Amino acid sequence: MRVAVIGAGMAGLGAARTLQKAGVSVVVFEKSRAYGGRVATRRIGDYTFDHGATIISPRGSELERVILEELPQDELVLIEKPIFLHADGRVSPVDPESNTLHRYAYQKGVNTLGKLLAADLDVRLETPVEKLSHDGPHYVVNGESFSHVVVTAPLPQSQVLIETIRDRRQFAGAQYRKCLSVMFGVEAPLDKPYHALLDPNQSQPLTWLSIESIKVPGPARAPEGCTAIVAQMSARYSRYSFERSDEDVISETWFDVKRLLGITSAQPAIKEVKRWKYSHAANTVSFESVNRSGERLLIAGDGIAGARTHQAYLSGVQAAEFLLSE
To answer: Which end of the chain has less neighbouring CB within 10 Å, N or C?
Structure first.
């Protein structure tokens, strides 16, 4: 068995690690230059932002076991301060039981997780896969022959890829939300009793606010006396503002950030927008509905399992175990 895994996000890395541990030859193809997909980090000057998944909350899953038992922990951070809620401009604590989950980050950024998961794998970065073909019973991926393929891209992209070999599987009902993630570096300190704010009703334009330099204390996220902030906008705002200019998005978002956090600075020192086209799998399809017994090309990813990091990872593990059981 020789397996091609398309995508080095959480699902792809979960599939590849599980297969390799079972002695299977695996090659991972990733179109970007980074591991981990939306478990991503952006460095701008002396500031560091987790601008995709801002925290890792594996909830006792297989991913948490891997993090705590298999991967190095020297840069792992257990986030101490809780999440508070915001609504109508007011900030309030939540039920203490809601903050009992373990939430993690890494000193230099959550993208450290992808790097650690990929450390012993054959991952071809900046290597897009635009089509598949057949060579007898085998699949050909970028000129190489494989007995099996695991595709872990967002489902709309997966469907386009598998159609190149006339695979007509459909993913009816699967939907993804867009997300605008706005990064700010502020030349002033900020001390709050929380590391993040959440709009529980998803009714405000600003739905999630992560104070990176509180989440990970010390100089790793911002220079001394400064603050790094990630503001993530609601699905509605992101959908309608996705093609608007950075200047407009930054101006509107900064107004809300200042109001919620009580910042008096006129303008941030750092400001940048990241557009996530496939940020969040809003509706998923079941693994069994798209992967039938005997399939040698499997579909995995957050569109199968759910939007959270540990769910995507588990879908990759499930795909690997499916192949190993055949």
So the answer is: C
Is 39-111+176-283 the same fold as 1-36+118-174+284-326? no
Strand pairing report for 138-141 and 227-233:
unpaired
- Span 96-144, pLDDT tens digits: 666 678 999 999 999 999 999 999 999 999 999 999 999 999 999 999 9
Question: Does the domain made of 39-111+176-283 have the CATH classification 3.90.660.10?
Answer: yes
Every domain of the chain and the residues it spans: 1-36+118-174+284-326, 39-111+176-283
Of 29, 25, 114, 108, nearest to 74 by C-alpha is 108
What CATH architecture applies to the domain 1-36+118-174+284-326? 3-Layer(bba) Sandwich (3.50)
The parts of the chain modelled with pLDDT lower than 70 are 96-99
For the question of whether the overall pTM of this predicted structure is more than 0.90, the answer is yes
Give pLDDT, residue 281. 86
Question: What is the per-residue pLDDT for 98?
Answer: 63
Report how far Cα 252 is from the mean position of its chain's Cα atoms. 25
Rounded to an integer, what distance in angstroms lies between the CA atom of residue 57 and that of residue 103?
A: 5
- What is the strand order of the sheet 90-92 is part of? 90-92, 83-87, 196-198, 206-211, 227-233, 175-186, 270-283
